[in-house]
Amino acid sequence: MRFNWQKQGLLYRPAVDEFTHGSHPCITHVRDDLFIVAFTRRNAARKSHIFLCYAEVSNGKIILTSEPKLALSPGNAGCFDCDGVISVCFVENDEQHYLYYVGWQNLPDGLWICDTGRSVLDVDRLSLAKEFPGPVLGRDKSNPLFAAATAFYITDNGLWHTWYNSGIKWEKRDGNWHHEYGIHYAHSRDGINWECKPGLCIPFADEYEYAFGRPSVVFWNGLYHMWYAHRATKNIDSYRIGFASSEDGVNWVRDDANAGIDVSDQGWDSEMICYPYVFKHKDVSYMLYNGNDYGRTGFGYAVLQDS
Prior knowledge:
Blueprint: E1 5-12, E2 20-31, E3 34-42, E4 48-58, E5 61-64, E6 69-72, E7 85-93, E8 96-106, E9 112-122, E10 127-130, E11 147-154, E12 160-173, E13 176-188, E14 194-197, E15 211-220, E16 223-231, E17 240-246, E18 252-254, E19 274-281, E20 284-290, H1 292-295, E21 299-304
Antiparallel strand pairs: 1-21, 2-3, 3-4, 4-5, 4-6, 7-8, 8-9, 9-10, 11-12, 12-13, 13-14, 15-16, 16-17, 17-18, 19-20, 20-21
């Protein structure tokens, strides 16, 4: 199948207040055409916070129907999320909605750690509560730098799957630290305790590529589909959206030419396109995504056209 995403424009433009950005949008179904959208904003100290709002999804259109509400803030000093929380993926299981998030912790000299936390969503109060003070997936013997899980899927046998970004190395370049990280796979019986599989899911394209951002995975027609942000190339250093498919969720075939979406000629997503989140409602497939400057311009959406 060849993919063709038709852009529908900007869905959320950051308000002029004490917060900037509107990054890492994700969405969960409540009932009928009612959904909840989560996204991330930064305060003046550049610490990320998670906001929620209601949305209506119908006939290829998404409309935000409430004002964004602050729902999750950074943790206490020294905790894994003390310098920021980033929305990454909703999971519904046993009538409970969870929002997985990435907790950010700054280190000296511009280094950082980002590990995975889990929160519980109250759909009526439009609120989130952290389930644990520490990460459910983070630095350990197989992930020495960080482990930021951003895509989840539960199979019929109750097995949880996640695809996460794990740090590979930090390297000093021109006096600054340069990161390299890729997409890895793990599975779990409860969504809390994870067994990580060694090795990269998606190989780096060449010596210029060094990072993958927020993969989004869906299971359609017996096949796993993954859209992800990746950078860089010899001539382009900003994020673009790529694509891969898999029969088992572990071994992937990369096909970036089939991502079906790219930067626009002008406007809010003309310099960068990143952080995709793909979902389906009533046989219509949607993609939420960010544009320029890692979401400073807000987020928009696209609708999958018939191939």
